[in-house]
Write a structure and sequence with these properties.
131 residues, mainly alpha, Methane Monooxygenase Hydroxylase, Chain G, domain 1, 2 domains, elongated, Mobilisation protein (MobC), MobC_2
Length: 131
């Protein structure tokens, strides 16, 4: 808080009535700022004080959506890998062991493909970020 604000006690009330559209506009604009409290935001707007607005780069939305998908894929591969390792430790059958090794190779290909995709996405995100 600013030094001036700690000295001044806020003891005056301003009651304000808004209709649904006005309130929605107020809350929509409030959500685009860094303010944590609606009352502080409204006070700043009312007193013509500067308000920090968060500017979101919409071009990164697609990147984030793909990264979420890749993260989910990687989580699936990780779970499969852990299950395979556990079953391999429990297995004493050679045929079963060969089947698990084959499955491991398939999962490894998926994993490497996803890692390459993540690297590409990170490079793409870095380009967008540095513009």
């Amino acid at each position: 808080m600013k030094e001036e604000e700690t000295k001044k006690m806020k003891n005056k009330w301003l009651h304000l009535r808004l209709d649904e559209d006005e309130y929605k506009l107020l809350t929509d604009n409030f959500s685009k700022t860094t303010e944590k409290k609606l009352s502080r935001y409204a006070r700043k707007v009312f007193l013509s004080e500067p308000v920090t607005v968060v500017h979101r780069n919409g071009s990164l939305d697609e990147l984030i959506a793909v990264l979420v998908k890749v993260q989910n894929d990687l989580n699936g591969v990780t779970n499969n890998y852990n299950q395979m390792v556990h079953k391999l430790h429990m297995s004493d059958n050679e045929r079963e062991l060969k089947a698990w090794i084959s499955l491991y190779e398939k999962e490894k290909e998926i994993l490497f493909k996803n890692i390459a995709e993540v690297k590409e996405l990170i490079a793409e995100g870095a380009k967008l970020w540095l513009q």
